[in-house]
# Entry
Amino acid sequence: MRREEVYIGGEWVQAHGEGEIEVINPNTEEIIGSVPVGNSEDIDIAVSAARTAFESWSISPIEDRIKILNDLSAALKELTEELAQTITAEVGTPIGYSRMAMVGTPRVVSRSYAKMLEGFEWEHEIRNSLIVKEPIGVCAFITPWNFPLHQIIGKVAPAIAAGCTMVLKPSKEAPLNAFLLADILHDIGLPPGVFNLVSGHGSEVGEFLSSHPDVDMVSFTGSTSAGVRVSQAAAPTVKRVTLELGGKSANVILDDADVIRAAKSAIGACFQNSGQTCSALTRLIIPKSHKDEILEIISSRVNGYNPGNPLDETTRCGPMVSKKQQQSVLSYIQSGIEEGAQLIAGGEGMPEGCNSGFFVRPTAFSNVTPDMKIWREEIFGPVLVIATYENEDDALTLANDSIYGLSGGVWGSNERAIEFARKMRTGQVSINGGPFNISAPFGGYKQSGNGRELGMDGLEEFLEIKAIQRPVE
Ligand code: NAD
# Structure
């Protein structure tokens, strides 16, 4: 899929940057497409188009926004296979998971914002004041590759609902789905300039977009280091910045848990999307009293978690998104071995039967201690690290021992697990495998970010609040 133009003001137009960005299939290592390199000139034009469109879109009838969001959801449903195949080709995600999570979730998220608008209260009164909620303005969206369409729709859908206009810069690794989304938004009749798409390099167009004086808000999802750069670039113009960043989330098994269920589920919770998930539960914290039992389950199941061709319907673990990501994950596995953690499954090198593609072996380490790099840093691959605790206080200290705070899990009797969850410094906690909820706020404590996406909180991020003080009679 060769895309030669960027989408600005409702039209496909020539980008001003030099060259193209090649998209590589991480399973076959072949070039499967390319997108243009946009530059600051394209961003200026796109922001200006978004500013012009804001005049009318910000006061558009709510029914028009509901229709767009429902039509978007219907189009995502109709094009599920094409989008899922594209994302599997770009990211390497197993195809079944692509259909369900990569396309299915954006479809329901779009619909959820249409539904939310039906009863949304734009105004309320406090004594003599009329409190009015208004769209914040022109938004800049910078997104990563790992759940590419989900992360885009998590911003685009509430922004459309709020009456904002936007410029999207998708990731270099997985930009093709964003181009398909632009086609969809065009076809369903989103007014020109409401959504604009400029592909390019993060350090160039991403930073320029973040610093742009006519952008009112930046919503960024990606690594913590790039999030810091975005915040710095945005600071001089005091725009709103929301950040969805990295994680190193803890999964705690209390000693009264159903340990067999908890141990089995711990693998999927860490390895979903081949471990390339910001909210993956990558640090497993287990009671000493059940250590042997849990490690036996983990090691046999991780060893059976065979990576392979993501187009094979039975594959559960695909390749890493890029050679760079593969090398990075392999270096963490090497570091775990060197630092003295006990390898209980997987390890260095390519998985058996994989001669090409950016694969790594699904891996688990036990006897991991808080001083080790594999405990502290986000690996972003199928690597589970396990630490053992003596008592519940130790378990909590271990769980909160991270610069991140995005997600988490607790297994145990319900009440005790919820009490434990209350003490965790993190944005989401799953109790006994409680599933992801697209209407619940998603976002981080600490260095996992600022702000929330999804649900009502995700909509509120795109609103300004005005108090109109009326004379008192
Ligand atoms: P990344 O930070 O390298 O890139 C993310 C986006 O930022 C890309 O579009 C990139 O081009 C752009 N970018 C890079 N440098 C920039 C800069 N200096 N200024 C502006 N933009 C810049 O991240 P990635 O490798 O694409 O994604 C993986 C990371 O994203 C992981 O750390 C993961 O935890 C995080 N993530 C977080 C969430 C969340 O919701 N919290 C979700 C998914 C991924």
